[in-house]
Input
Amino acid sequence: MPRPRASRALENAVRRLGFVYVAGVDEVGRGCLAGPVVAGAVILHPDRHIPGLADSKTLRADEREALAVEIRASAVACATATLSPSDIDRLNIHRASLTAMRQAALSLVPLPGFVFVDGFPIPGLPVAQRAVIRGDARAAAIAAASIIAKVERDALMCRLHDDDPRYGYDRHKGYATADHLAAVAKYGYSAAHRRTFRPPTLFDLSDTIAD
Output
């Protein structure tokens, strides 16, 4: 079955209203036990079509990586923002995700006149915006943002794996897979883990920290 591709219909409609720079914003890593949350922001060039843009979760790793290269080469502007596990613990994951998305959007040069954001509106964003449910599957600019954020975060998780291979970050990227939970049960939490989010299977574990 063909994979559904994200459309540029929303962006084009806003451009017809007079907005020149229209951005898409998304984040990855919200539901993880470990690692940062990374947000991406992209202003696609209206005359440079990038085939295959889709929700990053539906793409293979090699497809995401190839598209990320093309997005960065073809877009008007791209930016990412990263908030660490300690930031997530301090703010909570919802606020940290919104903060990362706001930082990514405001890092774009030129600054967009309108932003499409996946899921939730971004508080404190001094730019016109619209939240789009399942935006990474519907809007091409949001899909592009999800792809560059996912590729960057996966690379960060692989570097964490190189520093400490006990947890298998290169495989699960910090999500609560069975082998990740088994590693936490055996070794405790590492410095890369978020202390404020634990799945029910970890509630009875001790608060040991692996340094």
In short: DSSP finds eight helices and five strands in the chain. The helical segments are 9-16, 61-74, 85-91, 93-106, 135-138, 140-163, 169-172, 178-187. Residues 203-211 have pLDDT under 50 and may be disordered.
